[in-house]
Amino acid sequence: MHILVVTAVPAERDAVTAATAGRPERISVPGGFELHRTRPAAAGGMSDGPDAAEGPYVLDALAAGVGPAAAAAGAATALTAAALGGHRYDLVVSAGIGGGFAPGAPVGSLVVAEEIAAADLGAETPDGFVPVTALGFGTDAHRPPEELVAAVAAATGALPGTVLTGSTVTGSAARAKELLARHPRALAEAMEGFGVAEAAAAHGVPVLELRTISNPVGPRDRAAWRIGEALAALTAAFADLPRALSSRSTP
Ligand SMILES: O=C(O)c1cccc(C(=O)CC[C@H]2O[C@@H](n3cnc4c(=O)[nH]cnc43)[C@H](O)[C@@H]2O)c1
């Protein structure tokens, strides 16, 4: 099984590959992108000895940049480069830190997306926000395979719920309330998942989104961010991921 993991920044990519043994192999792809290729150990996660059992997959981690457009460009480039090489990824994962909606997703928790929803793709009208789908075109959400989401939740302890993608970090209680009114199952907010999911859908590859919560969604408070804690939780999640994937064959 071959997995593409797309993060926004190198610190997130390195937190993902830190769950695996050894130094990642670096592979250049067009557009100046660089894949960090690792081979996670078998179920149970991290392993560094010569006797380590080979894991159920090969993982390519890519730091594509912040925001849905950068994420879509990076993911689509990696997927296309693979396709031109006669290869195909089995799964694409959007991963990184994110904001958590209270009280469901506290700082330090892990969320797996049942739904990856574009929070601001549509039109503002006098009667409120109208999603792009209600305007008669486009897509505003992707649903990862249910069975895979359940397996990941069981293996990692992740909370299943909607993960929103926006181009702007929420900075007020009023905006957080508005988002929750439109997406009652929202647990997390980030800036890349929907872009990664669009690229995966274009290539017919299943998608997942995993977010570790670094800050609450709401009034801006930089002092409240717990980025180190969230990155450590991301490494722990990817150490547990082989258990979820080894229980199933290709999604
Ligand atoms: O300046 C601020 O107040 C602020 C608050 C939270 C996050 C940021 C970022 O610039 C982080 C963007 C980066 O991290 C992900 N992320 C983390 N927390 C959130 C969030 O609450 N809402 C949206 N995105 C978040 C995001 O995916 C980006 O990759 C700034």
Automatic annotation (TrEMBL):
SUPFAM superfamilies: Purine and uridine phosphorylases. Its EC number is 3.2.2.26. Keywords: Glycosidase, Hydrolase, Menaquinone biosynthesis. It catalyses: futalosine + H2O = dehypoxanthine futalosine + hypoxanthine. This is Futalosine hydrolase. One of its GO terms (molecular function) is hydrolase activity, acting on glycosyl bonds. It comes from Streptomyces ochraceiscleroticus. InterPro entries: FL_hydrolase_MqnB (IPR019963), Nucleoside_phosphorylase_d (IPR000845), Nucleoside_phosphorylase_sf (IPR035994). CDD domains: futalosine_nucleosidase_MqnB. The gene is mqnB. Belongs to the PNP/UDP phosphorylase family. Futalosine hydrolase subfamily. Pathway: Quinol/quinone metabolism; menaquinone biosynthesis. It comes from the Bacteria. Catalyzes the hydrolysis of futalosine (FL) to dehypoxanthine futalosine (DHFL) and hypoxanthine, a step in the biosynthesis of menaquinone (MK, vitamin K2). Residues 64-226 form the Nucleoside phosphorylase domain. It holds the Pfam family PNP_UDP_1.
